[in-house]
Structures are given as C-alpha cells and as structure tokens.
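Structure tokens please, single chain.
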Amino acid sequence: MPRELITVQVGQCGNQIGLRFWDLVLREHARHNKDSVFDESMSSFFRNVEIKRGNPINIPVGDGRNSLQNLKARAVIVDMEEGVINQMLKSELGELFDQKHFIKDVSGAGNNWAHGFNYYGPKYEETLMENFRKTVEDCDSLQGFFMMHSLGGGTGSGVGSYILGLLKEAYPEVYRFTTSIFPSNDDDVITSPYNSILSLNELRKQADCVLPVDNQALLNIIQTIQAPLAGKGAGITEGKTKEEKPFDKMNNIIAHLLANITCSMRFEGPLNVDLNEITMNLVPYPDQHFLLASMAPLYSLLDLKLQARGVDQMFKDILTDQHQLLCVSPLRHRYTALGLIIRGDVAFTDVAKNIKKIKSDIDMIYWNKEGFKYGLCNLPSLGQPYSALCLSNNTGVRSVFSSLQGRFDKLYRRKAHLHHYTEYIEVSLFEEASTSTSDLIAQYLELENVKEPSFIPRLSLIHISEPTRLLSISYAVFCLKKKK
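Here you go.
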C-alpha cells in the first residue's frame, strides 16, 4: 500500500527549499522510473491527475502500470507575501503545483512571530484546514506531514507554529516532521531571537520530530565542498546550466536531507526505515525530538563530479563537525540514539563493520548502548555510488538552544522591540517560551552529566508457600471450567 507524505512549505525560506526539493525528487524518480508509470514509489509525493474538460481526476496507483499523465505535488504552500510564490509559478516546475493549495497574502508578517501566529494564523485557519482536508483525502495511507520553514522571520516562524498546532489537533495520529532553519549569530533580522525562542516553544509542544539546520553550517559545508576545486575554475554541475540564486546551493543541501530521509519509503531496499521507526527508535523522551543530521559524502550535494571516497571514509566522515547541518560537535557530547540510512551499493558486511567501529568511537548513554537503527536503500543518491545520512539524538544540540537563549535575553532584558509583539500577544508568552527553552536545555544537560550507577539492583525471586501455590492452581482451574 502507498505511504504518502504531504509537504507544508511556509514562508520565503520554506518555499525556496521546497522548490529545490521538488526538483531533486523529480530527477531521482526520473532516473528510477524508466517506464514512466505511476507506481507506489511515485505516489509517495505525487498525485497522477487526468484532466477532462477542466475537471481533474486522480488516477489511482492500481497495479503500478498506469502511465504518467499530469503529476501534482502533494504540497500545501503558504506565504504571506506573493513574491516567492509568483516565482514558483513562473519556474520550470510551476505546473507541478496545484494552485488550489496556495495560501497567500500581500503585506507579509514583518519579521514578527506574533503577527504571523496571532493574526495571519487565525485569519487563514479555515482556508488552511480546508486545504489540508482535501490533500489528506487524496491519500490512501498518509504517513506524515513534512514542514519546511525558518525560525528567524515572521511567516515561517509564526504561521508555521500555528499550522503545527492545527495539524496536531486535526490529525493527531499523523507524524509531524519539520525541517527548521535556525538563524545564525550574525543574522540580519534584529528580532530573530524573539521569533526563534517563541517558535522553539511550539516545536517542542507540537512536532514529533525536528531536524534543525542553521545557515552557518550550510555555508561551512559549501566551503568544504568547493575547497578541492580551488584554482581549478568553477565546479561542473550535473544537468544545470542556468545561473543559481544566492541560496540555491544551501537549499540544495536541505533538499538532499529530505530526499534521503524518505528514500526507504520510496525505493526498495533490504532494510527499509519509515517515519514511525525513526520516531520510535531515535526519540527516547517526547520533548527531546530534535535530531542532528549529517550526510556523507558531501561532494554530490552540489552535484560536483569529484572522485568518490571509500565506504569506510564515508562512515568516518558522517560523525565529524564538517558534515553536520547544525554547528555542533557531536563527538564531544553524549548520544542517546543514532540512526543511519545507507543508500547505494554498500555490502552488509561493510555496514556491520563500520557500525561496530562507531559504537566504540561515540559516547552512548549507558541505558541505551544498543540504541542504533539503520536502513539500507538500493537506489543511490544522484551523482553518487553510495551515501549515508546520519540522524542522532545528541546532547550537543543544547548549545544551539543556549546561544539563542542568550541572544533572546539581551533583547528581552531591555524590552527592546517588545511593543511590536504586544499588539498581538501577551508578554506572558515570552516568559513561557523562555522558561520552556531553559527547561529543554536542562534536560539535555542532565543526560550529558548522568553517570552509570555502579550497582543496578535486580528483581529478586519471590518465594511462594505451598498452600498459596495450590490455591492459585485451584482458582485457575475453576476459572477455565467456568469459561467453558
């Protein structure tokens, strides 16, 4: 049975990421689907639509042999400014999107979380819910919502937070994953610390799994990729001749993250992993669902045709700082769980050997020493013979929260720019969000400092006297006879 995924693209950043994601996914399926048929793999992210006299009709997967007619993305697209959405419609992928699932305004949220959350959210609640209802009805077995947004601005943070609450209330059994772009320390939005902390509070409450990414880490990755090309001219790109926009390279890295995390649901492999297994195995406590993501090799993330590195080196690279999508050093902190999704031609013996080495290299919390989950997908990423995605629950993520909290406190102590927010929300919400962040930091710190007890008491055997044992047996026999 198909397992569908619906993307929710919110704000300028979310929609720019979305555009790169859909471009990548289409190219992946084009390489895999040589017969141009609508099969279960295609149905994960797409609808196959036949248009007769202007009335679109969904073509079911059936036996997986129906030809492709008009592909439509399973996406709900939200922005309170028209600019990026208009660019999407004019792009080569414009026809991929169903304009009925566009929710837009003109003036924007003005880099104000409260404006997005308490004004635009309620204003478009009915429209949003109707769009989600229709999109969900087009699915046979919906597995999850994937939200793409940033925390620094107003729409992605405020409206994005509001949407997460709507989805949790309306579809509590459907997984809610987010790719959330955290602002860097030199972010040019003055109020981004407010927006980020207020969003973080909602992500903690409303999301099932958050994949935090920050712009500085993406820039570091791009520099790492381009270093081997220094002095050799521009890198050769695959299938792209037009000029790229400033953030395209960074968004392309995030697109690979989303493609890799869903590959096991879309393509065959000896050991598939779905969203349920990710949340079940990598989230030991409900609040601590913020997963560090890293990928290796890096060269194909920008489609550079560089020499492939060895499998063993790939597993080694995946743990290093240079391959993280968040500015964190995971090896300096404690892991509570770790997952790997391997794509391409990698022998099971190589996987087992390298996982054994990883176990010896990292500090895994004592009560979850076997907290490893991995999946194997036969289809490699574009431009690579093999690749790996690592998702880890690591206490180092608290350093990112602490940095945001410090920047928030500097503004909030002086009540700077607060009047822009109190037009829409109460000041108490700032206190709640700040307390929530401090509590989350404390939870991760506690896990990092916990020591394995020297003695773990075992359950002792309880001696049952002979009369008691005979009485229990007699009662059991009586119950069986009565049941008959």
